[in-house]
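note to self: dont lose this again. the chain is below, predicted strucutre after it. 175 aa total, dont forget to put it in the shared folder this time
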Amino acid sequence: MRYVALLRGINVNPRSQMAMADLRALLEGLGHTGVRTHLRSGNAVFTGDEAPRERVAATIEQRITEELGMEVAVVVRTAGELRAVVEENPLEVRDPAKFAVVFLAAEPDRRALEGIDPASYAPEEMRVGRRELYMYFPDGLGRPKLPPLLGKRSSAVATMRNWNTVTKLLALAED
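---
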């Protein structure tokens, strides 16, 4: 089974530094093959035995804690699930650098999300997917309004990637 692991908050501050060579070695140490990383933000593609993605994520999180001494949330998708994320995108990608997908570890709390008034984050846009949130930030990702609003309404494990990264990870997963 081909998997994509998305690590939350990697290399964004001095306490979250992780070399991608260390991540590759860690994944290979878990028995995964064909391990590739993309960028320095904790994106990895690998092949492993078929297992529930939650178990794959938990195993990676545990090994990172044991070997690297870091507490890192990991969200995992199969290559097929990532393909569906791209194909089921409900928004127009006007600028891939300003378009992002928030990957959730579990299904979103739709009631909580419906309670957010779109006027409070306009002109930003958001649509809810299966276990993803699709977002467009016309003013860029520098100081978006939407992520802080979501953080107040949800404690779910989540990590965001821009569209360029999502599509590159899909290409790596299907390569």
